[in-house]
Amino acid sequence: MNETTQNLLVFGGVLFVIGMVGFMTRRSLILMFLSLEMMLSGVSVNLIAFSRHHQNYQGQILAVMVLTIAACEAAIALALVVSLYRRKATLDVAAWDDLSETLIPKVIEAPQTLEEPAMEFPKLTPAGLDPLSRPISANFDAQSMENGESVKASTLEAGTHA
Amino acid sequence: MNLLNNYFLNSAFFAQADADSAVPAAVSQVVEQAAPGQTWSNSMLVPIVLGAVGYLLIQHGVVKTKAYFAGGVVAMLLAVGFALGFTPGTFESYVLMSFCAVATGGGIGFLTAREPVYAALGFATAVLSFCGVLFMQSALFIAAATMIVYAGATIIIFLFVLMFAQQVELRTYDVQLNNPLVAAAIGAILLATITMCVTDNQAILPVRADSTRAMSLANLPDNLSSEAGKEASKKLDAIDPNLRYVPKLTAGLGRSMYTDYLVAVELAGTVLLVATIGAIALAQRTTETQS
Amino acid sequence: MLSLFAWMVPIAPLAGCIACTVLAFRGDRKIAHLPAIISLLFAALFTICLIVFGAQGEKGEVFSGYRYLNVGSLTLDISLKVDTLCLTLLAVVTCISAMIAIYSRDYMHDDPGYARYFAVFCGFVFSMTMLVLSNNLLMLYAFWEGVGTCSYLLIGFWFRKPSAARAATKAFLVNRVADCAFLMGILLLAYGVGHVESAEASFFARLNFDNIVKAIPFLSQNHPELLTTIGFMLMIGAIGKSAQFPFHVWLPDAMEGPTPVSALIHAATMVTAGVYLMARLSPLLVWTPAVLSAVGWLGGITAFIGAWMALFQTDLKRVLAYSTVSQLGYLFMALGAGAVSNLMNVAVVAAMFHLVTHAFFKALLFLSAGNVMHAMGDVIDMRRFSGLRKVLPKTNILFLIGAAALSGVPLLAGFFSKDGILSVLAQASKDGEFGGQFFVLLCIGFVTALMTAVYTSRAYFSTFLGTEKLPEEAGHHAHEATNIMLAPMAVLAVGAIFAGGLLGPTGAISSYLLQSFKDGGHAEHHEEVWVMLVSGVLAIAGIGLGYALSLKGPSTAESGPLVAFGDFGRNRLYIDWLYNVAIVAPMEWFADLLGWIDENVIDGLAMRVASLPRLFGLIGQRVQNGRVPGYTYMTAFGIAALAVWIATR
User: Is C394 exposed, middle or buried (0-12, 13-18, 19+ CB in 10 A)?
Assistant: First the structure.
């Protein structure tokens, strides 16, 4: 057994397992089909490794067949996904279990609100004048400021005049 | 392993094929390559388990916090490092293994990405790296075809659909996965088993020159019968007995496809045509769905 | 030719039955009487042809017709045995059934089950003729059950009435007890006949009457106790069907059926099947005097208690029903006289003679009661009407004829036939061994004759004489019956008047019947003049007593033992009550217990067992739940398991 062949076979296994785990865990229809393609890739690696190992074209030709069938499958799958999406406007595979066991209660999932990681902005050292801490000059353009601040500023101004 | 020996790679079958073949016995000799393969050791479990743990951590970290994510990446890197430890130490194999590693990383990204578009991009990465592996294995045509079909056509169309179906906010079904723990466990077990099988040197017979399809035109140079052809083959044999038979040339693949496997190829083309028609028929917007 | 006649007798009513069934299903109810009446008239015609043209041989003739089954040694031949005994009863059955079918045309005219009625009616006649004609005891048993079924269907004809449904069930169940013993007797008989060296190989053929008669001398020599057991079993079957003492309870309740049915089945024909069976098997019973003695006792008891209960009934039909029970007791008393050596044939002749005359006048009485019931708007309680001679003048005369014949007024049919029975009993009382018993029975016979005259005349006087009183249900119905109803009654009345005088004293019936019993005893029948005188006097006295009673009214309280006598009679001697307490209630309790066990133990167990798959199903439900992730996980798990299995083996 060639060591390269061995490694390639393991690599094919890795791709296959990744595809399988993806197919099991992913719930989006499209990603599930991509997982299938990943599994087919793993098999193709296998075939090509054996083709090299046995030094003939059989494996490669089988890989070509796999490729063809994968393309067919992708076409059909896409058509199906599109028509399914038209029905329910969701890609969730769990939405299509109308024929499932009714006695088992469906897991009702509250739509998860994902917490985006809190935006942490850099703390900059203040630069320039703080407009609120000192009187505003006469030629100050209130339009350029935000609304609340301008109101605040005008009251301040009135206070100082009084 | 006995199963494989008995049913799939029966040596008696090969012997019978040798006897039947018109190729001289010298051609069908056993050509054992220099490096014997690895044998199974329990330490091979380490990268597998590490990979599974890394996957879980990354998957968890994508949703929760970055610490998990970082831990997962570390675990994955460790796994890759361990795995490289089992590979032969040649430059070619390092290149090959780096392709493999990138493909695996793309796959993990595909598995764990929160946004479907990123997942698709991870898939594309994995496929491109996989094509690199195929290049290294002298499967040029298939590598190109895979790149065009997967990374080109399929991924692009899938991305279209994803974007067509994608909303602004994240969908629950993209984030909440089905039992990743169980899936990772099953995957790890399967991978360990595959590795165990593959590292059994008795399981797969040593390399042979192709004698099972002795009549294949693909294996014979065009001008074999001529003096020049004989000379050429002698030269090749002098360099490396394997060289003549290594399926390296895309022209050989094409010749084999359109001679030995003509019917299968035509059938595959027909299937493709039918699938095209089926896809058009299925995706058609009917009046019922509109109403 | 004779074979054709013999076969046509049962086939004609069968055809009528099929035609009526078709009509019942098609809904053409209005013409359903036509096939019935025509087929029954044909049956009567063929019977008369048989009597006139043939079957005069010593043993009668056997017509084998249809081989029903032939498997290995088992051969079922349906064959008919025609002799004078069977022809006598056959004539009664077919003629009276034809008359009653004509009567039913108007009596049942508005009933929604018109076609059903005639279908079952014809089915009954078919079964009865086959019962009478059959050459084989097992086949006889089959049609015995057939008449029982038809009787059940006709008693429960108005099945929406709870009392009718109950009565039908009661009749069926009581008969079932008796038939069980009958069947055991038949099987024992087949077993016994099989011991004879020359016995037929086929179980069925052993039970042909000729083979039974051939085997009897052997059995009586070698297995007398077996023969006695068989005789008792057959006797139980006969007294069940003929409503004798322990089994008499079903007959009065059977009056819930339509009145023509009561006339035909429960007075004239079916209940006499037991008598016919005893007569048919008399060559066997001759060898078992113990059985005949028991038959005599049972007949005597039944005759007496039937008359006793009839005395205190207020329901006109029930009076006639108990009278039927009582008269059937007479028949059995007469048969019992066969216990005395050499008297068997005479006893059979006397019983058959009374059977024929009784069929005429009892059918006539029932049809008259039907007329009364029809006119009174289904009211049959004698306390609620009286003095109907103006309203129903013709029925009045017909009832009077029947009542007189039943009471035994001299020169009418009942007088001669009852006198024949009493003479046989008187002859038997001179015997050494059984003399005492038959003397007692003779006394019972005289007392019963007196009582018969009393209750019959009382029923007549309180119904037709006295001040006119009509129940309010009668309304505008209170009119005389149509001529189509009266015509067959007139025929029966002629029979009730003249049948006794023509058949009895002239010796016609005895000489005719004795053709079938050439090798039996040869004792001649002696007319006992003093018996005739006593019974005539008793009849006249009874009628006078009855008139006096009807004037006094039934509610008069007497003192002393007469009160107890009346209470017993009114409460049917507490026999039904006793059955209820001793048999029905424990059985119901037992059935409740079984029901409880069925519901809680067996069903509970079954439910427990059934919940096991559900438990497994619950496990499988989680896995095979129809959702995509579940299947993908199962598939992946399977692949991994397969890989591990391959790698580790």
Answer: middle
Nearest CA of chain A to the CA of C612: how many Å? 17
Say if residues C42 and C97 touch (Cβ distance below 8 Å): no
- Chain C residues with CB under 8 Å of B8 CB are none
Q: Mark yes or no for CB contact A114/B63 under 8 Å.
A: yes
pLDDT tier at C569, thresholds 50, 70, 90: confident
Listed residue (B34, B36, B49, B134) closest to B83, CA to CA: B49
Average pLDDT over residues A110-117: 55
Question: How much is the CA Rg of chain B, to the nearest whole Å?
Answer: 24
Question: Per the CB < 8 Å rule, is C640 touching B178?
Answer: no
Which 13-42 residues of chain B touch chain A by CB within 8 A? 33, 35-38
Query: Cβ–Cβ of B193/C644 closer than 8 Å?
Result: yes
Touching B: which chains, 3+ CB pairs < 8 A? A, C
User: What is the average per-residue pLDDT within B228-234?
Assistant: 61
Q: Which of C521, C300, C513 is nearest to C431 (CA)?
A: C521
ipTM of predicted complex = 0.76
- CA distance, residue C618 to nearest chain B CA (Å): 21
Contact C636 B186 (CB under 8 A): yes
Average pLDDT on C30-42 reads 90
Whether the CB-CB separation of A23 and C632 falls below 8 Å is answered with yes
Three-class SS of chain B:
CHHHHHHHCCHHHHHHHHHHCCCCCCCCCECCCCCECCCCCHHHHHHHHHHHHHHHHHHHHHHCCHHHHHHHHHHHHHHHHHHHHCCCCCHHHHHHHHHHHHHHHHHHHHHHCCCHHHHHHHHHHHHHHHHHHHHHCCCHHHHHHHHHHHHHHHHHHHHHHHHHHCCCCCCHHHHCCCCHHHHHHHHHHHHHHHHHHHCCCCCCCCCECCCCCCCCHHHCCCCCCCHHHHHHHHHHHHHCCCHHHCCCCHHHHHHHHHHCCHHHHHHHHHHHHHHHHHHHHHHCCCHHHHC
Given an 8 Å threshold on Cβ–Cβ distance, is A97 in contact with C636?
Answer: no
Question: Quick one: average pLDDT of C477-503?
Answer: 85
Which chains have at least 3 CB atom pairs separated by less than 8 Å from chain A? B, C
pLDDT band for position C218 (cuts 50, 70, 90): confident
The Cα–Cα gap between C43 and C50 comes to 11
> Which pLDDT does position C381 carry in this prediction?
84
Provide CB contacts within 8 A for C271, sequence distance 6+.
Answer: C241, C242, C243, C251, C265, C324, C328
Q: What is the mean predicted confidence (pLDDT) over B146-167?
A: 80
List the beta bridge partners of residue B30.
B208
Q: Which of B127, B123, B157, B120 is nearest to B145 (CA)?
A: B127
Q: Tell me the residues of chain B between 51 and 110 that have a Cβ less than 8 Å away from chain A.
A: 51, 55, 59, 63, 66, 86-88, 93, 96-97, 100, 103-104, 107-108, 110
| Residue of B41, B154, B155, B167 to mutate when probing chain A, most A C-beta within 10 A | B154
Do B139 and A63 lie within an 8 Å CB cutoff? yes
How sure is the predictor about B19, in pLDDT bands with cuts at 50, 70 and 90? Answer: very low
Q: Give mean pLDDT, residues B101-130.
A: 90
C505-520, pLDDT tens digit by residue? 777 787 788 777 765 5
Q: Is the entire prediction scored with pTM above 0.95?
A: no
What integer pLDDT is reported at residue C141 of this predicted model? 94
Please check the confidence at residue B35 and state whether its pLDDT lies above 60.
no
Tokens of C461: 């006087």
pLDDT at C472 over 50: yes
